[in-house]
Design goal:
alpha/beta, 600 residues, six-stranded mixed sheet, 28% strand, six-stranded parallel sheet
Length: 600
């Protein structure tokens, strides 16, 4: 005890000398080490907010309740019989020093309701190996207090959730953790909070410390200030759903064989979602993700690097974003279930063996691809020998790299046809007319788009919807004058290997429609019309037939002698020669028509 008192005197003297200049954390490690006497813990008990039960045989301590934990300081101080602690959902904080000195503690489960881990909460739990935090993406943890896990020398990892905002001073000093994944949400990293040991009143840096974080955040600043190795990518893995979220900006920064190292051959990761801000998938990043069946690539992806998804054996379907420019060597090597790849216009290169040992039997390669490496497509590899996939087919454009590669390797090549212009003729909406879907073939560049389908089907589909409503009009509905109707045509290719070109234009009765590309073989074209009152050409006085009075009425209109201006339908009827204006020629043509002298 005298030795301990002497140590206290030294520390207090040091504090008095330095207190005027800086704040030095006071560790229970130095001041109270001999208070850990291993007292017995009652089998059960309660406080205002908490209840606990302790099974001395199994070593399990269960704490339930609601609100802030209000257990005494040093609640399990020095107790070597507590092997596992489970904190129930509803507890919102873990109070300071509560589990200090639980020397026999090996595992702690912290629920998603906990928002704060107090100062020195688990200090000197030297046998603590596992801290289970919520991994469903619902964790509310915001703050890890100063020295919270100080001296947990057996602790090798700690999952930090998205939403965590601060890690206080010396939180993970003297632990076994050398790899830290710091979420972008963390704004404050206290002095020496990670990557340091503390002994003889001095901090020493753990040189092998690696920090993963998003660029331009507190994590990068901390790493740079202390010269730790830094990777600009973080992740969050949901053990229940199997979803692995990858976060970052710019190039993905993950070391080779990262998946293998982190997740024991990634046996539990089934779905990967990559942050849209990421522009590259790094080499070997998801190597040997044997359970991965779905990958969501980022919208801004430009490059997939060497062997990025090698041996992701359950991956079946892949769509490359339009921003993708290159696929690296062996990027999808050994993805034995991969049977469909959608390559959008914009890709420029596919490197050597990129799709070897997959389930692909055909692929469509856009004309933007200017380089395809050796054995990139259509091959298997076994016993140091490349073998062609029987019947492998490449669809592409004449005179492109796709055709060159197909012919050079003896694969089937099917040249694609494109449609660039479609003209649709139909009766525009007129008041009191019933809806019909008569669409007439008119100057199609490709004659295989000829048929009409009111419901879904291959070919040409045509519909109206009224005033932008989501419900389409049905045959037999009546058009109403002055009402806006949106005409919609879906065009889909019914001939194999035929696609709509990016420059496709659709015309409704000569009027250019708005075209939306749905897929490479389906487009949707729309144009808005307003239903007009019906009129009879030449019947200006609207008596139901053309007579001399109509010619006279045109003359009165031109002389400005009418009692009221012509209505819109009367103006249309008066333009008998259909030249877009009303002239004396229209009155003359009506007279010719009545005299049976009109041959137009």
């Amino acid at each position: 005890m005298k030795k301990h008192q002497k140590l206290i005197s030294v520390v207090l003297s040091a504090l008095m000398l330095t207190s005027a200049f800086t704040v030095v954390p006071t560790f229970a490690a130095e001041l109270q080490a001999e208070q850990c006497v291993g007292g017995d813990l009652p089998a059960s008990g309660s406080t205002a907010n908490c209840r606990w039960t302790f099974n001395e045989t199994t070593g399990l301590l269960t704490i339930t309740g609601s609100g802030e934990m209000d257990l005494d300081k040093y609640f399990v101080n020095g107790n070597t019989k507590v092997k596992e602690i489970i904190i129930g959902n509803g507890i919102t904080s873990i109070s300071p020093y509560t589990f200090y000195g639980a020397y026999g503690l090996k595992k702690v489960t912290i629920p998603y309701s906990v928002e704060k881990i107090g100062n020195y909460a688990f200090e000197f739990c030297k046998d603590l190996e596992t801290v289970v935090t919520d991994q469903t993406g619902m964790s509310k943890l915001k703050t890890i207090g100063g020295g919270a896990f100080y001296g947990c020398e057996s602790l090798k990892s700690f999952n930090m959730n998205q939403g965590l905002t601060s890690i206080s001073y010396s939180a993970f000093v003297n632990t076994g953790i050398t790899t830290f994944v710091i979420p972008e949400s963390v704004k404050t990293l206290g002095e020496h909070c990670i990557g340091f040991n503390y002994e003889n009143s001095e901090y020493t840096k753990v040189e092998e410390t690696v920090i993963y974080g998003v660029r331009d955040t507190a994590a990068e600043t901390y790493a740079n200030n202390h010269e730790f190795t830094f990777y600009g990518t973080t992740w969050e893995f949901n053990t229940i759903t199997g979803v692995l979220n990858i976060y970052g900006k710019g190039e993905m920064e993950l070391p080779q064989y990262w998946m293998d190292f982190l997740y024991e051959n990634a046996k539990d990761v089934t779905r990967i979602i990559i942050d849209d801000r990421i522009t590259t998938v790094s080499a070997y990043a998801f190597y040997y993700g044997t359970a991965v069946d779905t990958v969501f690539l980022p919208e801004n992806l430009t490059k997939i690097e060497t062997y990025a998804f090698e041996f992701c054996k359950k991956l079946k379907n892949l769509t490359l974003p339009q921003s993708t420019k290159s696929i690296g060597n062996g990027a999808f090597y050994g993805c034995t279930s991969l049977n469909k790849v959608t390559i959008n216009e914009g890709l420029k290169s596919i490197a050597r063996a990129a799709f070897v040992n997959t389930a692909l039997t055909s692929v469509k390669i856009p004309k933007s691809v200017t380089y395809i490496g050796d054995y990139a497509l259509g091959y298997t590899y076994q016993n140091k020998t490349y073998t062609k996939v029987d019947g492998f087919t490449i669809y592409g454009d004449r005179g492109t790299e796709a055709e060159r590669y197909a012919k050079a390797n003896g694969f089937n090549f099917v040249a694609q046809e494109y449609i660039q212009n479609v003209n649709v003729s139909f009766a525009e909406p007129a008041a009191d007319e019933t809806v019909s879907f008569a669409v007439y073939k008119d100057n199609y560049d490709c004659g295989f788009i000829t048929s009409l389908f009111v419901q879904n089907g291959t070919g040409l589909e045509f519909n109206y919807k009224k005033n932008g409503s989501s419900t389409y009009m049905k045959p037999g509905d009546v058009f109403q004058a002055g009402t806006a109707y949106t005409a919609t045509v879906w065009l889909s290719t019914s001939k194999e290997n035929t696609f709509f070109d990016d420059e496709l234009e659709v015309y409704f009765n000569g009027k250019k429609a708005n075209v939306q590309k749905i897929t490479s073989g389906i487009v949707c074209a729309t144009l808005e019309y307003t239903a007009q009152e019906k009129y009879i050409p030449g019947d200006v006085n609207e008596n139901g037939y053309v007579d001399i009075g109509d010619a006279t009425m045109i003359q009165y209109h031109l002389a400005d002698l009418l009692d009221a201006p012509l209505t819109e339908n009367q103006r249309k009827a008066a333009d008998f020669d259909d030249d877009g204006e009303i002239t004396i020629g229209d009155a003359t043509m009506i007279q010719y028509y009545l005299a049976d002298l009109f041959y137009g």
